[in-house]
Every structure is written in structure tokens, then in C-alpha cells.
Amino acid sequence: MALSVPQVRISYVITLGAALGIALVALGLVLTPGPNMMYLVSRTITQGRVAGLVSLLGVAVGFAVYLAAAVAGLTAVFLAVPAGRPGASRTARWLG
To answer: How do the domains of the chain map onto residue ranges?
Structure first.
């Protein structure tokens, strides 16, 4: 008599709600004043609108790379921590 092993389907696709949450947090981080905002304003004032837009494009690309690296790193942590270990799972969620 053969034993039947239940199949577990794991989905790694991000939900729309999670994607919107990440986008909202990213927008909040982009809109906060900081060194990049001072850089963009000073470059625009001293060198004109085109230089400001080129600088904005560079800052946006850098931020997108930073965001992708952070999301990939958190995904790796959550995949590496086994869900069956309550202490490790709880700690990873608390840190994330």
C-alpha cells in the first residue's frame, strides 16, 4: 500500500497590497528632505532646469536600485528562516 504525500503549493508572487505598501513607503522616503533634495535644488538653481532633471533621473535610478536590493535582501532572509522555528521566525519578522 503506497502512502499519499500531500502536495504543498508555495507561491512567491507578491500581492498587489504588498506592492502598493512598498510603493507608498518608497514614495515617503523619496519625498523626505535630505542630502539628495539639497543636491537637486542647488544643481537646479545654479545650472538650470535640464541639469536638475538629469540629476533627478540619477537620484531616482539610484533609489530604485537601493529599493530593489533591500527587497531582495528581506526576501532572502524570510526564505532562509524556517517557519517551523518559532523563535527564529518571530525574530526575523520583528527585525523586518
So the answer is: 16-95
Runs of H (alpha helix) within 4-48: 16-31, 35-47
Span 53-63, pLDDT tens digits: 999 999 889 88
Only one residue has cell 531582495, namely 72
Confidence grade of residue 10 (pLDDT, cut at 50, 70, 90)? low
Among 63, 68, 71, 6, CA closest to 79: 71
CB 44 within 8 A of CB 93: no
Residue 71 burial class via C-beta count within 10 angstroms: exposed 0-12, middle 13-18, buried 19 and up: middle
Provide the whole-model pTM.
0.54
